[in-house]
Amino acid sequence: MNNNHLNKLKDTEKKRNVSYTLIILMVLLASIVKAESPKDYKDDSLKVKIIEIPNDTSVYTPLLSKGDAVSMRSGRLYLLQGESSGEHSTESYEEFIIVLKGSGVLISNDGEQIIFSEGQAIYVPPYYKHNILNKSHAVLIYIYIVAKTNL
Q1: 119: CB partners within 8 A, 6+ apart
Q2: CA end-to-end span of the chain, whole Å?
Q3: Of 39, 78, 112, 149, which is the most exposed, with the fewest CB atoms less than 10 Å away?
Q4: What is the pLDDT of residues 35-45, one digit of tens each?
């Protein structure tokens, strides 16, 4: 073999080594990014839990509080005739309300009234100011679940 041919082989080998090095770096980078992705999130303090829903007349009972979940919070409300949750905003949270018993009305900040009853669920978007009012003669019991958004 002549020197010219050997030099071409060495150049080809160098290019191949550079290519292999780049591929290895890309695989390492991909594995680092993958390890930091949300689906690989692990927190040993977060476990499946059974939460008892009380059967009493306490107006408010928290079900999921800070430390029980990543961003989700939940509670049970028990409202007598004329009682309300109090006007509040969901801020950057989405809210899901599950009506267990009775009926009521969701009153928005601009006066819109949405009537709901037992067996229904209500979605409330982020930054929505509202109040839940029991206008019926029966008790209103519902569970709310809120989860933080990136909005």
Answers
A1: 99
A2: 68
A3: 39
A4: 445 666 566 67
**Which pLDDT tens digit goes with each residue over 108-122?**
988 899 999 999 999
CATH number at residue 86: 2.60.120.10
Contacts of residue 59, defined as CB under 8 A and 6 or more positions apart, other chains included, come to 77, 78, 79, 83
In sequence order, what DSSP letters do the residues of 40-80 get, joined into one string?
A: G---TT----------S--SEEEEE-BTTBSS-EEEEEEE-
Share of the chain above pLDDT 90, in %: 46
105: DSSP letter:
E
Domain ranges, residue 109? 60-148
Into how many domains does the chain fold?
A: 2
Does residue 122 lie in a domain region?
yes
